[in-house]
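Render this sequence as a predicted structure.
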Amino acid sequence: MVNNIDNKLISLAKRYADAILQIAQEHNELDNVLSDLKAASDVYESSDDFKNFINHPAVSLKDKKETVKEIFEGKILNDSLNFLYILLEKNKFSLISTVVYCYEEAMDEAKNILKIGVVSAVEIDEDLKELLKNKLESKFQKAVKFDFEINPDIIAGLILKIKDKTIDGSMIHKLESLEKQLA
């Protein structure tokens, strides 16, 4: 999903995400709205026909709304469907994947969850994952949600990505640092 995120559009998408998040919080539907937004994003990203139809300037707003209604009515919450209509009205439906990303980030923040990316050279066993989780939750006083990635190029160790900070404890980083010191 992150592949479809345009960093230049995050600030705009964040405003839409914050608006639907507020509505979802008021109705205690955070997870359901996230699921709805992901479903809409999946349809948009996986169907070139749908994407071209939604983005085509000659197609009327009425036709676009009817199509979205046919696809999603009864399958997603009315608040979510109305939100999709707003994106159509503002000609911003193409932001849907970025809105999902921003919504998920804001939802995690609202639930006091810290998302941490972990890059390792090999698969991390469950005991180490649990140890890492406990240490980080204790340090940050937040629940932790991991996004694990394997990259054999780092040789050994871990790289942690926490918000906009990267903690590089990889062997390749240490070797590169040593190489610079010796040069």
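Summary. The mean pLDDT is 92. The helical segments are 10-26, 30-46, 48-55, 61-72, 78-89, 96-110, 126-140, 171-182.
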